[in-house]
Every structure is written in structure tokens, then in C-alpha cells.
Amino acid sequence: MEISELVSKTPCVVTSELGPPKGTNMEPFFKAAAHLKDNVHAANVTDGQAGMMKLGSLAACHLLKDFGIEPVMQMTCRDRNRIAIQSDLLSASALGIRNVLVLTGDPIHIGDHPDAKPVFDLDAAALMAAIRGMGAGTDIRGNKLDGAPRFSIGAAMNPCVDDVETELSKTRKKLESGAQFFQTQGVFDPARFLKFVSLYRDAGFKAPILAGIILVKSAKMANFMNEKIPGIVIPKPLIERFEKASDPKAECVKLAVELIRELKPHVQGFHLMAIGWEDLLPAIVAEAGIKPS
Question: What's the CATH number where 75 sits?
């Protein structure tokens, strides 16, 4: 089911994400997916995340759908030109994939093929506009399609950045280009997040927001994200909790549930980023009261 349609049918949409393998061994992928089954409405499949060469999102989404989980195909602008992108979109539609999350793509130099050449034939806004146009029956050049693909178009949002006005401007452009829902960067400072949401609503924006919840594994991880990932703001008291925690996994669940409960009245759902701790998701969705019915 399309995410934009699902929002109108459930009070809280829950998504998560999975990374395809670097190779053809799908066993770890499905082992992680098993923890998501019946605990999320849909799961993103990453597309060359962190500039790493891995099995493609399109193939993994198809396999995930066969496994019984609705996929959200992530698609970056970094690696393919407009011909390949449109071809992949038609292929995805033919395979029953109904949700696409459009991303610019992480820098190549941080990945495992730093000498690769980036493409960026389209930027994120242009890609969303292209998907919307294909849904209306034509390709980027205006050529008629024999059968139009139908997608719910998602975009990323970074609501906790310092430069809120720039982020609102980017959000407006994404909405104008066809974005129908947003999944946000990880939220650790509810006050900062809710300030952005208020400005978003005041601007007349209505597309649903799924707040990002990253599962923190340690104080070291928290400090790294604070220093290296734009838009991640983890207050010092939260980091101190993990420094003192005798059971990091229990503390991780506790924090995720606290954040979800505080943010739930203000958003349409959550995007849970487990980063290898998918086994914690069943407990988190149950304790937070967001387990899909």
C-alpha cells in the first residue's frame, strides 16, 4: 500500500529500513527483516548508503515484498542518469513497488569506491518531478508511456538543523516537485523538532511527517553522530544516560519509547532506524503503543 494512502487509514504509520548485502547472500537481510515483519507498515531499502557498492535497492525491494513486507525503494541521484533512473522506476512499478524515497545520495568519497564518478544528472527535486510526470503518463522528454507507474513519493527532512529557514525552503521545493510524505533525520531534541513542525504547519504545509528515531547503541555512537552528522542534535543529558547505563540495549529501548510517546501527538508516524539492532524493534513498537494492527 502507498504510504500517502496508509496515512489516511491508520493513526500512526511505522516504517523502518534495511540495507542490502554487499554480495548475494540474503540470509542476514531476511534475518533482520523477520524482526520487522508485523511490527512496521513498510521498510525502506537503502540505495548505495554511505557511498557503498551493494546489492541494488530494486532487487532487494522485490524480494522484501515477496517476504511479506511493503518496501519503500530508496533512489539516489548520485549514480544513474535520467535514462537509467526512469527505467528503474518502470521496473519497480512492474514489480509492484509503490513507494519511492528520493535522496541526493551520500558523497562518493566516503564509500568503498572513492574513485568512482558521480552522475547527478537530476537533483532530488527534478527526480521527484520526473516521478510525478511519469505517473501522469509521460517521460521526462514528454514522450507518452504505455502504462503509467504509480508511486507515493517520499523525501527526506532535516528538522533539527540550525538553519531552519533554509530547511523550510528546501521542504517547499520538494513539495512543489511532488513530495507526498517526509521521513526525517533522527530526532533527539523534541523541543527543537516541534519548533520546526510548528513553522512547517504555519507555512501551510500538510504532507505527513514520519519522525526519525535512531537506536543509540552507546555514548560513543551518540558523540560521533553529534560531531559528524548534520542535523543530529543529542543533548548532553541523553549522552550521559548511556555513559552510566549498565544495559545499553535496555536504555536504547527506553529512550526510543520516551521519544515516540512525546512526539506521537504531533506527527503522522515514525521512521525507526535500527542500524543492526532490528531485534529491539518489536519491544519498542509494543511499549510505545505504535504496533501496526
Answer: 3.20.20.220
